[in-house]
TrEMBL record:
<keyword id="KW-0547">Nucleotide-binding</keyword>
<dbReference type="GO" id="GO:0004674">
    <property type="term" value="F:protein serine/threonine kinase activity"/>
</dbReference>
<keyword id="KW-0808">Transferase</keyword>
<keyword id="KW-0067">ATP-binding</keyword>
<dbReference type="InterPro" id="IPR011992">
    <property type="entry name" value="EF-hand-dom_pair"/>
</dbReference>
<dbReference type="InterPro" id="IPR018247">
    <property type="entry name" value="EF_Hand_1_Ca_BS"/>
</dbReference>
<feature type="domain" description="Protein kinase">
    <location>
        <begin position="78"/>
        <end position="346"/>
    </location>
</feature>
<feature type="domain" description="EF-hand">
    <location>
        <begin position="511"/>
        <end position="546"/>
    </location>
</feature>
<dbReference type="InterPro" id="IPR000719">
    <property type="entry name" value="Prot_kinase_dom"/>
</dbReference>
<feature type="binding site">
    <location>
        <position position="107"/>
    </location>
    <ligand>
        <name>ATP</name>
    </ligand>
</feature>
<dbReference type="Pfam" id="PF13499">
    <property type="entry name" value="EF-hand_7"/>
</dbReference>
<dbReference type="GO" id="GO:0005524">
    <property type="term" value="F:ATP binding"/>
</dbReference>
<dbReference type="InterPro" id="IPR017441">
    <property type="entry name" value="Protein_kinase_ATP_BS"/>
</dbReference>
<keyword id="KW-0677">Repeat</keyword>
<dbReference type="InterPro" id="IPR011009">
    <property type="entry name" value="Kinase-like_dom_sf"/>
</dbReference>
<dbReference type="Pfam" id="PF00069">
    <property type="entry name" value="Pkinase"/>
</dbReference>
<dbReference type="InterPro" id="IPR002048">
    <property type="entry name" value="EF_hand_dom"/>
</dbReference>
Amino acid sequence: MLRAHVQHTGLCSLQSRQACKRRQQNAAGRSRRGTCIRADYVASSHDSLVLQKPIKQALQPKEVRSVFGFDRDMRQGYNIGKVLGAGSFGVVRSVTNKANKRKYACKTIPKVPKRGDCTPRYLLKIQQEVDAMEQLGVSLDAVYLKDVFEDDENVHLVMELCLGGGILDAYNCGGASYTEKRIASIIRSVLRFVAQCHAKGFIYRDIKPDNFLLLTADPTSPIRATDFGLSIRHWPGEEPLKSRSGTPVFMAPEVIMQDYSHEADVWSVGVLMYHMLTGRFPFWDSVSNLSLQQVWQAILVRQVDLDSPQAKQQLSEGARDLLSGLLRRNPADRLTAGAALAHAWVQEDGIAEDTPLNGSVVQRLQRYGTYGHLKQMVLKMIMEDVVQQGTAVAETVKHIRELFERLDTDKSGGIDMHEFTDGLKQQGYQLSAEEIEQIMDRIDINADGAIVFDELAASLLDWKSLQQDRLWTQWVDLAFNKFDANGDGFLSLEEILHHLPPEMDGASAQDRILEARRMLREADANGDGRISKDEFVALLQEASMRDSLDQYDSRYSGARAEVTVGQ
């Protein structure tokens, strides 16, 4: 248990974070769909001033006392417990929420690293880790980020506490033996998570057993991805990344060659799968006595032999077929995470095809929850216009209304936590109270403790089909123009501040600016501190292209729901 949470700090016995010379990029960059953009962490004009200083400039402690705008007083809401682990990237402690009495893990990251100077790049890396966790942590395949705090010296990430250790801990320490069927379910969860990262424009860059934890001590427990410290925002079509990041034995050939993109994560999944099935690595029985150069040379030169007698003895035909697609040396020939999820070996004990809603309610809620706050707000705005203007989704809205009325048992006009929990269970979904709470936290946009109809409808509507409607461009234009008060064709920080949801009315000026900056970062692909019309459109269209429902855990156990809303 303790060993697993040390990994929240980014430690690994095999890990060697080699410092490589990074190409300096123009901070303005180019559009998300362009051919060249920053290859590393670069500040945008809407970031705090300290982050906009030269990327490698050494900063003094007094300059970084307040950088991100996160809440300051963690002790007001949490009791601090014992240390679970410590390492070069910080300390992990057990904390208890004073309100709900639940225990969480708190990763404390120093603003001034133990080794080297504090630089804007180091701070931007922390900001990127928080952004990735906030967006992806609503998925049932990733650790949920409950709260973020900042004091003069540290950033504190309060997250879901995973009690089962890493995915190999029970296997290595308890004498247990995973079946191939169980390993397939673990790899399915890993692939779902990787597909979600790529759909949201992140490369994870550190796939290894220690970064995937069992939620509970039960060997069949759900899996959670953790430690987003090396994740980086990067969209397909952008210039390949250059910096070597990750654990050497899991690195793809193109990472070693410093010319890589999303495909590198898929190679790493292949290495993880091979290791779990055989107890070995693709090129070695053990790496304990190998130098870093020997490890890299083997990855670059040697071929993965899946047809040897030993491989055929240890690996089923289906496993070898999937591995052959994951471990292709040419990234262009490698399976995508989404394509790998469709492979028969991953699905052999997997999700039943006969799921409700042509993609379960829980899958839709997770996907919608991983959207940023700006995207959620805009989709809700568009949904209201769609419902008012015509019958394009009239039948779907009718079905969602029926589901809402079934869940709203006290007819209050809102679905509270108790109703949400009971309703999902009655519909045949299996989730813990904590998992339901984390989903509800992101769906309940107005933060009033209940899901109203508009919030449920926005999360369940078939947005892919709506984007094919002849009126879609008109709906998007209406939404954009509502924000663009001065009509200059761009959305500024001030215009986003003006349209923050009503629940932010009572927030402090600092909290409102923090929320507006987060929203701006969602769509400001070129970092110029404003959102163009093209960036606005790309924000809304992105999910329909890559973010399919089968990338999320359905948690459906067999009861039939009566609502169908498409894909």
